[in-house]
Structures are given as C-alpha cells and as structure tokens.
Design brief:
By secondary structure, the protein is α/β, with parallel strands linked by helices. Helices cover 22% and strands 20% of the residues. The strands form 3 sheets. The chain has a 6-stranded mixed beta sheet. Strands 2-6 form a two-stranded antiparallel ribbon. Strands 7-8 form a two-stranded antiparallel ribbon. Strand 7 and strand 8 form a beta hairpin. The longest helix is centred in the last third of the chain and has 17 residues. The radius of gyration is 15 Å and the shape is globular. It binds zinc ion. The site of zinc ion has 4 residues, from loops.
C-alpha cells in the first residue's frame, strides 16, 4: 500500500486524533530512528477505546483496575496500527511524541528526541496480524521517504529491563524483508 507523509509530518488518509502529549523536537535534531511498540488496553484485550483515551488523557481510572495504575501517565505515540490494520496518527512526525521514556540507542539518550514511535495493538503472547505487518511496512516506507531513518528498533531494545514490547511475537526478519520489497 502506498502511504504518503506530508511535509508537516502528517500521513495522508490516516485517522488523525490529536494528542496533547507532545512537544517540539530539539532544534536541528534529525529524525533517524523508528521505535516499534505494542500495546493493548486493558492488557490482552483488543478493539476498545483505552489506547486512544490514554493518548488523549481521557482514560477513566475507574474503568478497569489496570487503568487506575496508568491513568495519570502523559504518553503518546506518533502512530497506532490496530489488529485489523486501521492506522491512526496522534502526533505529527515533526513533533516529539512521548513514547520511549528513559531510553538509549547506540549511546544516544532520550530517544523521543530523534525517533518516530509506532504502536502495534498487541499482547505478549499473541502473534501480530498479517494486516499489521503490511500496514507497518507501508508506513515505514513512507517515513523513510521523508526522514533520514537509519534503523528500526524495539522499545525493549532502547529501554532494556524496563520495557518488553513489542515482545517475542514480533517477527523482525519478516518486517525487515517487507520493507525491502
Ligand atoms: Zn513501548
């Protein structure tokens, strides 16, 4: 699928849901890394509005026991790919989304400064869907046409010991093969 990012860092045709959890990237900071995440809210349940609510600071702390532990977080990602491949954008790629937290990649700290964060709706033990790989590959190609991305990595790789996503079910070789097509 052909996806296109505008000069402003917005994906044409994607559902755009503005998250307030973002700010400016440091001046002169090139966007050269893609960080892959996975998330489901409540954990292990797919299709609800918990992720959108988390990213827009409207999660109901009383809606689920787990929500009480995360309702105060101020987080976001640039993109979310649902199980059926639906693609949503929350933050312009030109802005800094708050997805990586304390992190380090090849000796550089604060990965939010220079990365684009993509969330796949998923859970530790659930294989990701074919549709998610296809959309992720198309999105990655669109990002690389606009930004000087040199690599893709997982949240668990830049925040080891603290984060485990996208988890053991994410097939890196499949992903890398798809984007070379
Ligand atoms: Zn993550």
């Amino acid at each position: 699928m052909e996806l296109r990012l505008t000069e402003e860092g917005l994906l044409e045709g994607a559902r755009y849901i503005a998250s307030p959890n973002c700010d400016e990237r440091p001046a002169g900071c090139a966007v050269d890394l893609i960080v892959i995440h996975s998330i489901s809210l409540p954990p292990g349940e797919f299709g609800g509005d918990g992720i959108v609510r988390l990213f827009t600071n409207t999660l109901d702390a009383g809606g689920h026991p787990y929500y009480a532990t995360i309702a105060g977080l101020r987080v976001s990602a640039h993109f979310l790919i649902r199980r059926d491949g639906e693609l949503s954008q929350f933050v312009s790629c030109g802005a800094r989304a708050w997805h990586a937290g304390e992190s380090r990649w090849r000796g550089r700290a604060r990965c939010n400064d220079f990365s684009i964060g993509i969330e796949l709706e998923g859970a530790d033990e659930a294989p990701f869907e074919d549709r998610q790989y296809a959309v992720l590959a198309g999105l990655t190609r669109a990002i690389r046409l606009r930004y000087p991305v040199v690599d893709m990595t997982g949240h668990s790789d830049i925040a080891p010991g603290r984060k485990t996503d996208p988890g053991p079910q994410f097939d890196w070789s499949r992903y890398r093969a798809l984007i070379e097509d």
